[in-house]
Design goal:
The protein is α+β, with helices and mostly antiparallel strands. Helices cover 44% and strands 25% of the residues. α3 crosses α5. The N and C termini lie far apart (43 Å).
Length: 115
């Protein structure tokens, strides 16, 4: 259970961080969002590309995924839910590109055409 959380926009990262959503590097100087809070009593934080944070929030809002149902975008990719990945490609192409979603969907489509 989330006891407290706060999201802060960072104009320019002072050092590289790993994006919690796409698991790619946020470079020094890039804008980012930082999520700070406690979950089940443990304090923690995570960094996200600003467009990844926007995509994650949009996905959660459109699917009513909050709290324990929240998904990081990399979990969405790992689930191989192709229709969800198509949504990401259409709604947030830069995020999908960073996560190589196009290749996953293309592979799925190719496998499906063989069946």
């Amino acid at each position: 259970m989330t006891d407290f959380s706060c999201e802060v926009h960072i104009k320019a990262a002072r050092k590289p961080h790993r994006c919690e959503h796409c698991e790619q590097e946020i470079l020094k100087g890039e804008p980012a969002d930082k999520l700070v809070g406690t979950f089940d009593g443990d304090f923690g934080w995570s960094y996200m590309h600003t467009d990844c944070a926007e995509a994650g929030s949009a996905y959660a809002s459109s699917r009513s995924c909050y709290g324990i149902d929240w998904l990081w975008l990399h979990e969405l990719v790992e689930s191989n839910e192709v229709e969800e990945l198509r949504w990401l490609m259409n709604a947030y192409p830069a995020v999908a590109s960073r996560m190589n979603v196009e290749a996953i969907v293309a592979k799925h489509d190719m496998m499906r055409s063989w069946a």
